[in-house]
């Protein structure tokens, strides 16, 4: 499946950044610590097949590399320039490079927005120059790119500082150059191949979306790993990730989750990060797998570069230690069905193997197990067709199971069956050298093996959810265009009753209400609305009525109503309303905000006055389809009540979905809305009533 995005000029391709015909390194000098010289040496070390030309105003000689004085002197076959000069000098190079038809530039140096106000001004000028002269820019403040197949990298790190991986099927996208170097080095140490990698630093042009699109359409990339601190265009990234995850696993590590990390991200790449909770919701919706440390990303990329497709969720766990089996079961129980083998399979195994082994799953071969017995047990269990994946963790310290078990495993394990092998201590070293590690992934701890198998199960579950979403039944929609037009024409934020009046005109249910400006209005109102009643303040500046004693519930008599109205009217003259008190139901909170990364976001969960205490809130990036919305609702504690219990009937989730989608479309199509909140909306078996509404507008 080819990923289609916004139409761009021909020069928008990122292919040249990975496989240039010829490279100019501007700023290279004979000094040993010169960045440009290091880049040239790295290209030479990794045998880049194309021509490399240095540019230096004094034309100082470099080993095995031609040098010219000016950009204008470069030969015509150069199509990529790597700029290793000061930030001020970068600005003067864009126009002459464009005149030489060099439309792809990597800016490796710093001194831009990450350094403060002055650097930000320079960075904005660089961005403007790139657009003006039709040049695509990677960086600034970056390492650039790596392509094992093309023997190319723009790194200024020597082979002593960074060990690069061989060819493989992994694509890596990293906002941080330091993180990318650690990741590449870690994969190389594990002898795991990488196809391509990119670091974009301050990201004024080429960023994660261009890289993700390129990797999605690259048939040599099977799995994509990402490290991001912020998002250049969160909405575009979300759409792309939804498409990419259908065909390729995407593992993502988010930096800047909390306040200290966000400050650090701003300092080193000028990244502004949005809400981490929203990011997690985006991962769930798109089908990305979040990892939480460097080791988890290395293990996951290694595993998915080898793992075949998972057909089901039945996991077989085998170990030669009972305690390890318990630990693995606890780790995997939330992701897998760890069922016992059939009675027939267990009987067959007990007829061939000692009865003190346990074949219940996890299978425990005990410290007495032998290589041949381990192989026989695994083959019998896999051949039973009862399981979809194998987690095998072997412990050292027994004479029966040793490194020679690798020959058993190499011959009996099927190639199309997902397997993760964990081996501890000295046994890991033995198995690593003997096992066919290009087919069967092996890890140095049982926990690492278990967590990667869990990622496989998690990916399958996310894909199944997405497939269900794509086949969803449609519900009749409310028309949000009238209320959208109304809000877009307002110059100041409306109060609660104005909002609810508009909602009622759109067909949504709100309690009957009347304004009480003077005492005589009470009797007129009681003709229309029956007790019990609610008395409340309605004013655009009052967002939390309970905090200012601006709401009174369960008023059951005229005397009580009059007394409370007089008290409230002294504080808020002319802004008091009477409203029908609704019967008990399930109170929910439905809210919307604009995330700095991903734009419009839905928040939904248990509502009422204690919403901050319950913290039963799930999030979704908009737009969200009906099936995803139902799934998100069901993830809340309120969702369990909506489903119904032995003591209460199910509630009208379809009506809830219809109303939430109405709110969502309104919020998406009204850019001046900063946030919307409906708390509570009260759900019943046959209807939903909106009890409170508030909003804030950007211009207010």
Automatic annotation (TrEMBL):
Pfam families: ATP-grasp_5, CoA_binding_2, Succ_CoA_lig. It comes from the Bacteria. The keyword Ribosomal protein does not apply. Keywords: ATP-binding, Ligase, Nucleotide-binding. SMART domains: CoA_binding. This is CoA-binding domain-containing protein. Transmembrane segments: none annotated. It comes from Candidatus Nitronauta litoralis. SUPFAM superfamilies: Glutathione synthetase ATP-binding domain-like, NAD(P)-binding Rossmann-fold domains, Succinyl-CoA synthetase domains. The keyword DNA-binding does not apply. GO terms for molecular function: ATP binding; ligase activity. Residues 17-112 form the CoA-binding domain. The lineage of its organism: Bacteria, Pseudomonadati, Nitrospinota/Tectimicrobiota group, Nitrospinota, Nitrospinia.
């Amino acid at each position: 499946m080819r990923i289609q995005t916004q139409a761009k000029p021909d020069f928008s391709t990122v292919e040249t950044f990975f496989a240039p015909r010829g490279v100019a390194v501007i700023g290279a000098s004979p000094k040993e610590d010169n960045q440009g010289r290091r880049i040239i040496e790295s290209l030479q070390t990794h045998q880049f097949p194309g021509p490399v030309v240095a540019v230096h105003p004094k034309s100082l000689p470099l080993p095995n590399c031609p040098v010219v004085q000016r950009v204008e002197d470069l030969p015509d076959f150069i199509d990529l320039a790597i700029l290793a000069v000061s930030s001020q000098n970068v600005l003067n190079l864009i126009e002459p490079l464009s005149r030489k038809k060099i439309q792809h530039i990597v800016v490796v140096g710093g001194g831009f927005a990450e350094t403060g106000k002055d650097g930000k001004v320079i960075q904005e000028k660089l961005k403007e120059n790139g657009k003006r002269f039709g040049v695509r820019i990677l960086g600034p403040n970056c390492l650039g790119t790596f392509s094992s197949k093309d023997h190319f990298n723009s790194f200024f790190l020597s082979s002593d500082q960074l060990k690069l991986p061989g060819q493989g099927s992994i694509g890596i996208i990293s906002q941080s150059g330091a993180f990318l170097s650690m990741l590449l080095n870690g994969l190389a140490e594990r002898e795991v191949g990488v196809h391509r990698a990119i670091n974009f630093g301050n990201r004024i042009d080429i960023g994660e979306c261009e890289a993700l699109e390129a990797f999605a359409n690259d048939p040599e990339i099977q799995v994509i790993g990402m490290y991001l601190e912020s998002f250049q265009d969160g909405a575009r990234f979300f759409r792309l990730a939804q498409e990419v995850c259908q065909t390729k696993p995407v593992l993502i590590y988010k930096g800047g989750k909390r306040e200290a990390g966000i400050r650090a991200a701003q300092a080193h790449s000028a990244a502004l990060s949005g809400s981490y909770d929203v990011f997690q919701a985006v991962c769930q919706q798109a089908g990305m797998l979040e990892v939480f440390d460097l080791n988890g990303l290395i293990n996951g990329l290694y595993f998915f570069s080898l793992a075949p497709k998972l057909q089901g969720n039945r996991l077989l766990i085998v170990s030669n230690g009972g305690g390890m089996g318990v630990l693995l079961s606890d780790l995997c129980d939330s992701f897998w069905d760890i069922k016992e083998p059939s009675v027939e399979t267990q009987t067959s195994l007990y007829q061939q193997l000692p009865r003190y082994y346990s074949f219940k799953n996890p299978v425990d071969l005990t410290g007495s197990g032998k290589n041949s017995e381990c192989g026989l047990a695994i083959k019998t269990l896999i051949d039973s067709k009862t399981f979809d994946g194998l987690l095998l963790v072997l412990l050292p310290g027994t004479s029966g199971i040793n490194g020679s078990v690798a020959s058993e495993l190499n011959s009996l394990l099927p190639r199309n069956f997902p397997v993760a092998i964990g081996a501890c201590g000295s046994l890991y070293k033995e198995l690593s050298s003997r096992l066919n590690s290009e087919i069967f992934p092996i890890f140095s701890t049982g926990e690492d093996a278990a967590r990667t198998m869990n990622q496989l199960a998690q990916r399958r579950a996310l894909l199944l959810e997405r497939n269900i979403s794509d086949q969803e039944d449609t519900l009749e929609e409310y028309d949000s265009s009238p209320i959208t037009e109304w809000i877009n024409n307002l110059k100041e934020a409306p109060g609660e009753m104005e909002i609810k009046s508009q909602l009622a005109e759109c067909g949504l249910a709100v309690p009957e209400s009347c304004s009480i400006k003077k005492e005589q209005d009470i009797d007129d109102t009681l003709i229309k609305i029956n007790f019990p009643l609610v008395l409340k303040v309605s004013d655009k500046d009052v967002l939390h009525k309970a905090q200012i004693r601006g709401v009174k519930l369960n008023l059951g008599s005229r005397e009580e109503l009059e007394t409370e109205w007089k008290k409230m009217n002294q504080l808020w003259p002319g802004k008091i309303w009477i409203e029908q008190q609704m019967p008990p139901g399930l109170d929910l909170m439905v809210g919307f905000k604009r995330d700095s990364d991903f734009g419009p976001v839905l928040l939904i969960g248990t509502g009422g006055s204690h919403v901050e205490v319950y913290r039963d809130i799930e999030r979704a990036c908009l737009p969200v389809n009906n099936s995803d919305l139902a799934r998100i609702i069901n993830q809340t504690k309120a969702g369990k009540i909506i489903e119904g219990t032995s003591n209460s009937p199910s509630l009208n989730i379809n009506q809830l979905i219809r109303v939430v989608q109405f709110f969502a479309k309104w919020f998406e199509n009204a850019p001046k809305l900063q946030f919307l909140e409906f708390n509570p909306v009260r759900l019943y078996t046959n209807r939903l009533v909106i009890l409170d509404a508030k909003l804030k507008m950007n211009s207010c």
